[in-house]
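Appendix B.2, paired examples.
Example (i):
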Amino acid sequence: MTDLTQDQRDAFESIFSAGAERWHFHDTKDPLIRYLRDRRIHLALDAVRKLAATAIEPLSVLVVCGGVGGEATFFANQGFTDVTNSDFSQNALHVCERRDPRVKTRLLNAEAMDLEDGSYDLVVVQDGLHHLPRPALGLSEMIRVARRAVIVLEPHTGFVAKAIGTEWERHGDAVNFVYRWNLESFRQVILSQLLEAPLSIRVIRLWDHNSVIRKVVSKLGGGSLSLLAAKAIYALLSPFNGMGNNFIGVLVKHPDAISRP
């Protein structure tokens, strides 16, 4: 483990040392919070379903950089029965185990996962790669470990991100550069590893400002009115998604195909 990775691990061990009650928002049933938290991952799953052209709920799922397991809980709630949450923080995994016993846990370094090729059907990361010292290596490991598909939810590069986006994140003594993706960077990492293997790639760019939107619409008193307002804001932003700050990347492998679709 490099010094940078160890610094990050130490920082997050401290962050995740608090009890499970600190992370209750992962388990909320509040429709507004659920919509804001789950909107991107629902879009990603829809893309996987279309590209795979088959039911995906029977697939085994590995969440990378999963922290206390918010995304893993999402998959369990969606009917996936074989879900594993991984992180390099043992404290985070302990919280996950207390939060949601449906979810398996595994201590893994995302840049060098101690797993065989194709160990899980679907490998997912949400806002985790940009914390790594080598984000492209993290994606390469996800591609290697995935038997069928990869989902990446991360910041998107572009003019707006460069103008107003955060460039450096700090957690205690640890610092990381906020690596931002686009179609070409995603595609090149995939093709450099899988070469001419049959596969499908889908990238979705969109706006995602959950904390800001929640503050704005909460002034309406919460409930269905606030939820409708949040959906309306994102609908108004959708024509401008081509300049959005967020990236959804989906890779589906087609091992039985004769040629690339």
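Example (ii):
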Amino acid sequence: MTSDDRLPLTVLVPDSACEPIDVYEQSAALRMAIVERVGVSALGSDWDRPGLYVLLDRPGVDGTWGSYVGKAPAGVRARVLTHVGQKEHWSRAVLIQRDTTHGFNSAQVAWLEGRVYDLLQSALDGILHNKNRPGDETLPAFERTALEASIEPLVRVLRLLGYDTATSEDKATQSATKTTSTYHGVTVQDLMAAGLISAQAQLTSTNGAWPASAHISETGAVIFQGTTYKTPSAAGAAVKNGKATNGWDFWAVVTATGQVRLSALRARYLETRADGS
């Protein structure tokens, strides 16, 4: 039996399909609304506050779906109402605001806009309509950490609606857990001994939905945000809030000529060992 320390979502469903469905998430102090295109005019004045919105197309027969993310520093309701007349592709929207006295400020919704852009762009089945990545990268680290707590509830709501934001790496990991996985018997220390990676080497996430940086310790561990993890997968799971992760594909070494996945370095190591050289 596994434990789950996430607080549940509270979903309030109205009698009419034209009225918005309210969703509350206590741990991140979020209020979300699921609203059909024809019901945007029914949004209350409490949505005249800064927030974020995601416009969603109807999923295609092949399982793909389109989306558009935008910020609304002057108020979510007015901004989404403009898209009823300006954008034809979407059929429903998810609105997000902070369920607190002061709510989000304009810099926070700008940063979240870029973060949700990364999430949607990386979704294997998603087609993002935004042409350029938005975002405000001027926020201090402690604010970004607090805002990061807003992403998982949004992912859960989108999945509930049938919009799976899983990346190709996520789905490969999910598939691996259902079958017998290959055990390579290789550690980062083995790569270090073979001269394929060095201590203090910088690592970066290959998953745009979960950006992160880390580095290799003298003992071959992965250090992420000051915490030492014995394996790349443990460090990757820490980035993804405990979600099982294939760290060898999640992390790449930053080199002068580009990024090299740890799995690629492991493959080189295995080839060298097989050749006996």
